[in-house]
Amino acid sequence: MATGLLERAPEMAGLRAAARDAREGRGRIVLVHGEAGIGKSSLVEALRADPPAGSRVLVGACDAMSTPRTLGPLRDLAPDVGDALRTALRGGDREEVLGALQDELDAHPGTVVVLEDVHWADEATLDVIRFLGRRIDRVPAALVLTYRDELDRGHPLGTLLGDLGHGERVERLALERLSVGAVETLTDGRHIPVDRVFELTRGNPYFVSEIIASADAESVPPTVVDAVLGRLRRLDARVQDDLEQLAIVPSAVDGALLTALVPGGPGALRAAEEAGLLSVRPEGAQFRHELTRRAIVDGLPASRRIELEARALAALLDAGVDDAARIAHHAVEAGDVDAIVEWAPRAAAEAVASGAHRQAVAHLRSALEHADRFPPDRLVEIVERYAIESYTIGATTEASDRQVETIALRRRLGDPVALGASLRWQSRFDWLTGRRAGAEAAAAEASAVLAEAGDRTMLAFALSNEAQLALLVHDLDRARDLSAKAIAIARETGDAGVLSHALNNHGTAIAQLGDDAGLAELAEAAEIAMAVDDVENASRAYVNLIWVSLDEYRLDRAKELLPIALEAAERSEFIAIAAYHRVEQSRLELARAHWDAALATVDVSVDLPHARCAAMTVAGLVHLRRGDDGADEALAEAQAIADRIGEFQRRGPVGIARVEQALLRGDLDTAGSLASELYAEAIERRAHGLDMELAYLLGRAGRPVAVPAADRHPFALQARGDPRASAALWRELGCPYHEARALAESPDESDLLESLTILDRIGAEPLARQVRADLRARGVRSIPRGPSVGTRSNPEGLTDRQVDVLRLLVEGLTNAEIAGRLVVSVRTVDSHVAAVLGKLGVATRQEAARVAEERGILDVEAGDSAR
What we know:
mainly alpha; three-stranded antiparallel β-sheet; AAA_16; Tscrpt_reg_LuxR_C; WH-like_DNA-bd_sf
């Protein structure tokens, strides 16, 4: 059989070029992706075997564990790095690891760090990748990531790949299947029918190698499991036992563990190595392909697997291995309750320290399946930590439900300070799940309990929590009073977290009253929290600072802050807060009439009621302003959520969107009635920004109201009836739709024509139709027809980019492959594919391809589509 890599010369050249660039101080990211068995590991191994001169290659792998090891692939690098990084990895503190890793790479220019199978990476590892990715142009190293293409929607790696972006410092290497010619080369001299091998494998290199190794293509079942087991059963029974034992360990097996698990040590594995199943080195052994290991495990009877898991667990404990995640994994798989009770909470604590909150939740869930084994004082800590970690990753309903158990336990244990603190958390969780009444009740009890207990720091926290609840219903006076009390106590006691929390609420309250001093307090709240690494409170401050900036249309400030805020939230896996930042990003794109970007950014699948309400409002407005289908459904859902929550901060924006919808339909009565009702409430609640937008919309509906002359909000100027001045301000702020809408209200025909030019350019068809009708009513004859050619050529109304996506979809490319070809994020492609299917009225990609061919959609030249 031929040896070496076939049909991989360009990809190997790309890796070697990245290594040379790293040696010269030019950092690079290389993304090696493809289906399972396509040869990602073989490519990496070839680079490690023959690196460019002056380079070193460090390889770590993510494990297919039920709960991945925290920083697992980084820990694999420990034997080959300096003491500082090795020590940091042993401790697991995220910030120490990040600093030590950067120092290690700076000290060794030309390092190639390969992290394999990052689709299985834990959150802490993804944080490290994100950290390096944002600094790669300043790091003399190449970061090579291998992963499988097909990621589920919402997979954390998909978000990370979008964050890494594209450009000259990021290269994507998509590995393709082998050609018939390559398969023929591999089978040369083996007397195996090439056509049969290709038929069974479709050119997947791993499947090809397995069938060739079995030496009989006709008798090999068409599944890799059977192919692997066929090779395994040809070996001696003792070797089979050893391989089954090693297969239970979802990572490389180091020398000490190998000796413990395999009685004969490395020498006993010679036959397995010669059969091509294992790779044996002085530092240990590893299956040559993860699919081989998994195939062996999948073929084990449950009883045998439990036995092997128990042996692996015992070997780790006997060897004194202090890797809680690995021990907890084998304990769960073996069903060893004593070990689970001891090690799962420890693994969770390590995960929390490293910022791997999803892994923490998984470990704590394992522990709580045996809640009866913990004493009450220990159980309450585990239950509450599980609730807090669930909240952190966005599972707020689970957090709220579990916190009820915490409260019950706290009441029985009789510690009032601990009870008050837990009630404060309960209030937070209830609010996030839309349970306003429960949030208020828990908040009031927390303050009462803590006031009696005499813990002033926790009392300040409880008061600030009550202030936040008042703020969220625009009871601004109460919010200011309560947060001011909390600030005074926090400054007295010196608690930075409480001070940040209270300043956040106080600053937001006065900012909503139009006082810029509130913005300064919000910035101070973020700085105080970041100084003590309190990412949650810093992120809350950023959420409010950006939200208020967007309300005031200070878009440049929001744009500047969003990347900082999102990185902080994502690095620490505060999923709920990151969801709000993505909604803020979509609001920014909406304000700038970047329709596709707004839809690509907004996460309409988010399961947090407040964030989902805002997300559906943005999605509804995009569809409404472009004239797409889907506006009614999105706004109806947003309204239902807002009504359930009952807070004006949600009902106001949804109501405004519905007023705009009525105006675009020419229904002035509905628009006026709804706007009048909302405006009265906005004035009562002093909801600045919302009140001015409603005042403007009332004028559009023929019910003008007086607006203070000193108010400089953009909508205040527009409500006062100066279209040109309003348009100039909107242009300065970077809001073309609002600029066009202002010009459309001018009595001057030239302003209407300018408005029409903008609306056609950004694809705002409903308002453009109204402007054209107005021009015709005024007797204007030379009215631009707009983008009608594309509409006639492409009656489905696909955008240029959607036509590009459809063309690649017809070619059979996956979303990840389309993203690589078009140099966009997978999330953007997901959005485009959904839009294409919706506009074509089909449910599947195959149906879309059929419809495209039947209607000749792909015969349209680029640039001829509707928008």
